[in-house]
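Review box. Two proteins, two foldings.
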Amino acid sequence: MPSERCCMSSSVVNGRIYVIGGAPAWVAVLSAVEEYDSLDNRWVKRLDMPTARAFLSSSSINGKIYAVGGIAWGWQPLRTVEEYDPGILIDDGKSIEIAGKMPVKWGIIKSK
């Protein structure tokens, strides 16, 4: 993995592993997202999530990843839920969504 970290979460979409958030040696929390393709044995840096956090949970549903809760820097608990659409990685390095060809993006789920 390119970034050293603990307390991150991971999910699998289309055979690729996405490692999300976490903390490097307790000096900060991360918003980093990295993708691992086991067929190519290659890591790719992906778009950071909007909210840096550690101790989060993530799940994949219908090709999208949902980052749930966790803690922000200073041990502040979060109730934020964000959605990530990883799309697909094509040969020229651009990321596209399968339907509609929208760019890879993070979105915030409306909360109460």
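Next protein.
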Amino acid sequence: MIGRVLVAAVLAASLLSAQRGGRNSGASGDETPMPRPRAQNRMDQIADKLKLNKEQKEEVLNIVNASVESASPISEQIANGRMMITQAMVQGQDNTDDFKKLMTAFTNALAQMDNLEATTFGKIYALLKPNQQKNAEQVFTDLMAGMFMRAGGGRGGRSGQ
């Protein structure tokens, strides 16, 4: 147990040193920091995980862009529905028929978004070769689920990334 703690401490110290650019204590005077790698956007992550070629990546981008346009009004409905439901609950109106209508509309909007995500995934999956399809499920659950939700309107997963 103590050995594991010691190894963890050494690793943590080396990571901290690496984050500072591995600088010495100012001996050389040249302390230019190491450039940090650029964070990948979601499309790049999807392309990497699925090992898409250039043509596939362009097709996937076209599919996603079309879905983003379709998702915008649905995302707006979800955000507005969430706000209206919250207001109704705060005002103690959560046992009324109007509240039930709000919940039904909100649930329908969520279902529309889920359908759009699944349809988009299906179109992307159809483009994949069999060796690429083996990683598709993970890509959907890790990177695509919730990807069309507006920032701040996610469903608790990785939305907005």
